[in-house]
Design a protein that fits this description.
Blueprint lengths: L3 H6 L2 H9 L25 E7 L2 E7 L16 E8 L7 E9 L6 E6 L7 E8 L2 E2 L3 E4 L10 E6 L11 H7 L4 E4 L31 H12 L2 H9 L2 E3 L21 H18 L17 E5 L3 E5 L15 E2 L15 H13 L4 E5 L17 E2 L7 H13 L5 E5 L5 E7 L9 E7 L14 H9 L3 E5 L2 E8 L3 E9 L9 E10 L6 E2 L1
Parallel strand pairs: 9-10, 10-11, 13-15, 15-17, 17-19
Antiparallel strand pairs: 1-2, 2-5, 3-4, 3-6, 6-7, 6-8, 9-21, 12-13, 14-16, 18-19, 18-20, 21-22, 22-23, 23-24
Helix pairs in contact: 2-6, 3-5, 4-6, 7-8
Amino acid sequence: MVTRRSFLTATGAAAALAMTGNLPDLVDAVGISHRTDKRQLFTLGVASGDPLPDAVVIWTRLAPGPLEPFGGMDDRTVNVEWEVAEDDTFRRVVRRGTAHARPEYAHTVHVDVRGLRPWRHYFYRFRAAGQISPIGRTRTAPAPSDEPAVTLAVASCQAFYDGFYTAYQDVVRREHDVVLFLGDYIYEVGVGPTAGVRNQAVPVDFAGEIFTLDEYRARYALHKTDPDLQAAHAAAPWIVTLDDHEVEGNWAGYVSEDGLPHDDFLVRRANGFRAYWEHMPLRLDQSPDGPSIRLHRHLRYGRTADLSVLDTRQFRDDQTSSGGWLPPDEVSTDPARTITGDAQERWLLDTLGRSTSRWNVVAQQVAMAQLDRKTGPELELPMDTWNGYVASRDRVLSGVRDQDVRNFVVLTGDLHRSVASDLRVNFADPSTPAIGTEFVTTSISSGKDGVDADATGRALLAENPHVKYQNVQRGYLSCRLDRSAWTSEFRIVDRVVTPGGTASTRATLVVEDGHPGTHLA
């Protein structure tokens, strides 16, 4: 059992490493191992992410024993060769090089491959100790002046113990250009001796909540052993951000919702951030500096879309009453309150104001639209979302309106339900014009199978005229953006607690170019 004391002392060296934020030299390597390992090294697959018109990050981790301490690796640095080609037979290799998988970074490899061509599919692979990794496929972003149709998948919330990742099979089949993952890639709570509904034996160390850097690393390894998740990473580039469970449920800024003392929580936050960056296809610019990490960033898909990725955890004020469903109060309506922090809010509005793209997209964690679930004139709102930070939401939506931001679309996770809503500056007045649309994707597995509609879902539709659709089953969001419209298909899976579920489109909603708000197709 891990205690607060043991998480600070049992792996003190790892905690100190996480708090430093110093990256080791990535060019020179001393004592590099060239040995041939008899066990498979690439057990956690490959991934790519954050595509630019001329670049993409490719990722892997060496882990012959993924659930063993240190992934089954020793403390030596390993040479890892990488190749990027225009074909999956690697006859037309366009870039290659050697990276170093270092023990202080859990033998992960991040390569920022430059010099690529815009809006092209590429194939990539790694080689180490005589072994070749699975092949991944990625795609660069369009050239700044181009305006192609773009397809994207939106996913979040994949509790390992709650179900199988069946939805990712559908993500792969539909061949999206990019996948957006909006938080809760792992869960910090124990998975149980049989990994919940999966009935899969896991080491006893996985039974409890995680605190140390090694424990966070092992939890990522467990999730990444899932073959459907590996296939989805190998099929397209991912653009990721985190929410709360990558560190601790409902944490806010420097506040631990588990009641950890300030300094102890900073160590835990540093551990969570370090393991997150190690296991995501992110650039060195996003690597953490101790208990801080910069995840908000801007990516452009030609003239088709500007994408602003937010971090609504690290800089927020604390939740009121731990973030449950409550009536508005003096805390949630405090005009000084923020969910993004002042600097990120200014960055977002400046980025939106400068955009010349057709679609202006915000990828973030928690619901922005007002979501009242109480019948009658009184309100009951989810305080962990923008509903608990009303002034922050008002400033952003007013800025969108005042700057006449074109085709404003917010993509959200967290709720474990699908929701489509119009965004308004004044939700209390249904006659207020819509200034944008929010699509909330359901969870991949969190919450188990779910149902088509529950009491909360029925109340959301009845009490919120701006809410156009809801569903509480598992799945993801499949979107197409072109010059005439944004089309969102809510893809649901009929079951996740057992393998073999079937995916289908539960509803399709459309936003027409130049006409804020959404409607059923």
